[in-house]
Amino acid sequence: MAMESYDVIVIGMGGMGSSAAYHLAARGQRVLGLEQFGPAHDKGASHGGSRITRQSYFEDPAYVPLLLRTYELWEKLERDSGRDLMTLTGGLFMGPADSLTVAGSRRSSEQWGLTHEVLDAAEIRRRFPVFRPGPDDVALFEAKAGILRPEAAVEANLTLAARLGAQLRFHEPVEAWSADGDGVTVRTGVATYRAGSLVICPGAWAPRLLADLGVPMTVERQVQFWFAPEGGIEPFLPDRQPIFIWEGPPGTQVYGFPALDGPDGGVKVAFFRRGEVTDPDAIDRSIRPEEVAFIAEHLRTRVPAAAGRFLRGKTCMYTNTPDEHFVVARHPGHERVTVACGFSGHGFKFVPVVGEILADLALTGATSHPIALFDPGRPMRG
Ligand SMILES: Cc1cc2nc3c(=O)[nH]c(=O)nc-3n(C[C@H](O)[C@H](O)[C@H](O)COP(=O)(O)OP(=O)(O)OC[C@H]3O[C@@H](n4cnc5c(N)ncnc54)[C@H](O)[C@@H]3O)c2cc1C
């Protein structure tokens, strides 16, 4: 049998890869998408019903132009797919005035002229009574922050890509890839494929598939927790309750969502960092009573009504670079290979714009988007 041949092969049909497949197919490319699990699965990083989106980006103001573009593309993806993917609830970024969460959000807002308000503790309590800020807590409120639906977004990308002719193969793990002067070769358990170029979006499997990239990445086990709020869900409904990120004791950020899916859905909360190092094929997916108790205790003094009955938990994985900025670039060792990885727990909101950038890079080797921060060759402080 002749070897199947494509314009572009995309490895990994999670958030980033599904978006790349869609954008490449929309530009007329013959695309093959390969995924080791099923469509919109729950074993990587793009599941759990909700993701935060925001523009006043405390991590670095360099993300803001990409955020402005990603919002446009989220709206386009909603229109093209007919699916409800983004809900703007507003967002509260809380902590001491000099914390990364507050000061960093303020810096991005001021530098880019984003609409925002700064609230003191009394104002937070008055407008959002479920929160119990301490005397030193302040908040930046951003009306354009909100919620994304990760599984629906991945499904939307996959459906649109397939409609545009992309071949999508699930339950087909890639075992090896290589690149030469004429193209790329990708071997799975069932076949070997050729293409002109390759896009690799492997999520937590990056240390395995991109070992020669020269970027040390750490995979972290993270847990998303759902609780039934004490006293009913009314104060936590999305028209009254914003998403929040709250920085407490040094380095601790807890974040949460309104009650999205009715009384049985509950409110989702999690810690932003603090994950334990894991292996994507050996991760402990059970939820431990002591971690439920720990986050409930943390909420008790801050959002006490949220720490009601524990409903369920779900593990997920971060793939962290040393400086927690992404890697999105041409592979430094192979000009026919483009990579997107190391999203360090904050990549989902960028799914549409990363798909656009990957299509640019795979087809022309360059992009007009500002991605210098994501260069794998940058100095990465630990
Ligand atoms: C608990 C949690 C909360 C988060 N909250 C937010 C948030 O609020 N806002 C935000 O913006 N971001 C958030 N993130 C981060 C965001 O979800 C991730 O950055 C994003 O989903 C990463 O997408 P990805 O495509 O890189 O990874 P994935 O979606 O995991 O996709 C990688 C895919 O590659 C496939 N793959 C790997 N190896 C192979 C192989 N050999 N062959 C075939 N297929 C392969 C995997 O099976 C997987 O489907 C959160 C992440 C977690 C875990």
Automatic annotation (TrEMBL):
Domain FAD dependent oxidoreductase: 7-361
Keywords of this entry: FAD, Flavoprotein, Oxidoreductase
Domain of life per record: Bacteria
UniProt-listed Pfam families: DAO (PF01266)
Cofactor(s) in the UniProt record: FAD
Entry keyword annotation includes Oxidoreductase: yes
Record keyword Iron present: no
Membrane-spanning ranges: none
Database matches in PANTHER family: FAD DEPENDENT OXIDOREDUCTASE DOMAIN-CONTAINING PROTEIN, PEROXISOMAL SARCOSINE OXIDASE
Protein name: N-methyl-L-tryptophan oxidase
The organism of origin for this protein: Dactylosporangium salmoneum
